[in-house]
Design goal:
Elements lengths: L17 H7 L2 H21 L3 H19 L3 H14 L9 H14 L1
């Protein structure tokens, strides 16, 4: 009988709550989550809202899923962003104004 392999694409999404996210993250990202968590808790104390906490948990939920599906992908993304910045930014990108014009044209045509 063949053992069933887990499919990372179908891996369970961790709950958007601190303990579940910490458990789903590799140690180096867990430390980064903890640092951001401390900052956001202080911001929430001052703002008296949970917006910052919700945004952080959402961000790290996506990061945890990305890491479950493709380990190391978060670091690769950071490395790529660093290379792009070091090279003076994206040279082939489209400006937001160009995107807005394209959207307007498509909405008017449709």
């Amino acid at each position: 009988m063949e053992a069933r392999r887990s499919d990372p694409a179908n891996a369970a999404v961790p709950a958007a709550e601190p303990n579940a996210l910490r458990a789903a993250l590799p140690p180096e990202l867990r430390a980064e989550f903890d640092r951001e968590w401390d900052v956001v808790l202080e911001q929430a104390k001052k703002s008296h809202t949970l917006e910052e906490i919700d945004a952080l948990l959402n961000k790290w939920q996506h990061t945890a899923v990305m890491e479950i599906r493709e380990p190391g992908s978060y670091q690769r993304m950071l490395d790529k962003a660093e290379r792009i910045q070091a090279d003076g930014g994206r040279k082939t990108g489209v400006s937001i104004d160009d995107v807005r014009r394209l959207i307007t044209r498509r909405l008017q045509a449709g």
